[in-house]
Amino acid sequence: MITATRGGMRSRASGFTLIELMVVVVIVAILAAIALPSYQNSVRKTRRADAKTALTSMAQTLERCLTQFGSYSSANCSITSPYDSDHGYYSVAVTRAATTFSLTATAQGAQANDTQCASFTLDHLGAQTATSSNCW
């Protein structure tokens, strides 16, 4: 766009055209479409630590029960089941008998979209299983 200035000289106005602005918007949209799913996947992987922490913490509590009272299922050993993990991304269920236990963490809330590792299990032998083999 050419405009008149003082003294009769013409100069070009500075600024962005609508086309330039639209090109930038399209580029930003493409970058966001690529980056957002990758970021969400990374966040889901990070939240899996909440399940692992909850399972190992409860396993330690149950081992203390066995040491103190001679049984995982002693009445003196009060365990709440199910309970939410520290950050609430997993619900942990406890199944216990006198000499065995099994802990299962199931994804909930925002973490429920993590279909690859929706469930983690830890037992009295230390066996770790999950929905997929690469979760632990």
List keywords for this structure.
single chain, 136 residues, alpha+beta, five-stranded antiparallel sheet, two-stranded antiparallel ribbon, 1 helix, 7 strands, 38% helix, 22% strand, rod-shaped
**Largest beta sheet: strand ordering:** 3-4-5-6-7
Q: What global shape is seen?
A: rod-shaped
Would you list the SSEs in sequence order as H and E?
Answer: EEHEEEEE
> What's the average pLDDT?
87
Distance between termini?
62 Å
Description:
The protein is of the alpha+beta class. It has one domain (2-130). It contains 1 helix and 7 strands, in the order E-E-H-E-E-E-E-E. The protein has a 5-stranded antiparallel sheet with strand order 3-4-5-6-7, with helices on one face. Strands 1-2 form a two-stranded antiparallel ribbon. A hairpin with a 5-residue loop joins strand 3 (83-84) and strand 4 (90-96). The chain is rod-shaped. The mean pLDDT is 87.
